[in-house]
Amino acid sequence: LGRGLLLVAGSFTAFRLLNRGLERLVPPPPSARRNRWKWRNIWTSLAHSLPSTHSPSPCRFCLYPGLQEDLVGTHPPGAHSLVAVSVGYFLEDFVDMLCNQKLHQSWELLFHHSVVIICFGIAVLLHQYVGFALVALLVEINSIFLHLRQILLMADLVHTTCYRLNSIVNLGTYVVFRIATLAWMTRWLLLNRQHVPLATYAVGTVGMAIMMPMNIILFYRLLRSDFFK
């Protein structure tokens, strides 16, 4: 328990420090200077997405076949630490948005982060459902392209080939690693109802019921913005 909380605190601090120093590492272009905090925020999110994709990659599930059968008590080495680090990042991002963005502009993401922090926090504290959280982190594979899209938009590169290619890959990975992953997680919860305590099942079910519509709505917005404008 203590190690998990230390990892969460250390991750929060590390991402906070990274956020503060990113403007020097990646100076914002003229088009992004009016919204400097957002520029730093997106790059911080991208920094989290890149390492987050290594451990929960599909290959990891092939290397640990037991994970596919038991998402409650089984998880590969390092998975618990990865989930704890992700909790620290989501806490940092939550605080960053709360301090720098108006509530009516950020309430959807704040709500999303609250659900993730609660669900991942349970996995970190109980050392259970880490495999389930690991499946959820497959979403971060798509997040790479989602964050790149925002960076290109802020850099005023929307009419470039790079943006167009990223849009295509973004939508493709969105369907596979967001919508399909969340659908699989929902199915797993329903099929394993008898193996999951009622309180945990309720949290997971509510989480999935919130996440799925939010992600479908975002997919529609991306599709409309990048392909049907």
Automatic annotation (TrEMBL):
It holds the Pfam family TRAM_LAG1_CLN8. It is found in: Membrane. It is a multi-pass membrane protein. The keyword Transmembrane applies. The chain crosses the membrane at residues 132-148, 168-186, 198-223. Its main location: membrane. The keyword Transmembrane helix applies. Residues 34-229 form the TLC domain. GO terms for cellular component: plasma membrane. One of its GO terms (biological process) is membrane assembly. Keywords: Membrane, Transmembrane, Transmembrane helix. InterPro entries: TLC-dom (IPR006634), TLCD (IPR050846). This is TLCD2 protein.
